[in-house]
Write the structure tokens for this entry.
Amino acid sequence: MLPLQVRSALLSLVILVLALGVWEALNQPPEASEGLSEFELLMGGADQEARVPPPSDVLSHAWAELSNPFYDAGPNDKGIGIQLAYSLYRVLTGFFAAALVAIPLGFLVGMSPLMYRALNPFIQVLRPISPLAWMPLALFVIKDSEQSAIFVIFICSIWPMLINTAFGVAGVRRDWVRVAQTHELGALKTAYKVILPAAAPTIVTGMRISIGIAWLVIVAAEMLVGGTGIGYYVWNEWNNLDLNSVIFSILMIGIVGMVLDLILGRVERLVQYQE
């Protein structure tokens, strides 16, 4: 019998082929298309309901885009590689900035009941606020769309990491901490040598959640600020009524998000293994 991984891969392939086949069959262009303008053809004909492009058209467009992903023909005409690179730069900058704040603060909250009680009201008030709600204020204060987008990523990334770090630190077995105290280890050495290794899987889980949220938010943020990035690319192609590019960019967003999650998932498994 085939291994589970092989069987699951084959099943995924079958599901993909069936989905693409149904999509192709349901989205064929109308036959009576002579005399129609390009706009009418794109929208399915003058008297037809609007249709999305079939997967064959999308794949053909994807091949053309991926053949030259880093071309630069002006402010509003850049390759998909450049657009993704700008988005990844913003996401990773905001994400790592949030990690520098959230993880130490999470240790403080998790190790100190006093700090937990003092900071918890602020966390509970700020955490539910939509990251995009900060964008107008960020644009007014920072006065730079690039830095404002990074700030929004920072805001949306900080909470899962902070909460998971505090939860992981607070859940470390107390007898391990007592052993460190009997060896007269200071608070910093105890945190680094005892608490950090024990809480590392929970911390990385928070980082994994944060990177997924950050990648979601950057698309909407770039639609608002414009300029460059995969979010702006989607919105710009919609304004150009290029549905092939819209669908292609949506697929690229999903693929990049999956890769980011796989990387953090691999780190999570390594940390758990070493534990």
Observations:
- The first helix runs from residue 4 to 26.
- The chain has a mean pLDDT of 84.
- Residues 80-274 form a domain with the MetI-like fold fold (CATH 1.10.3720.10).
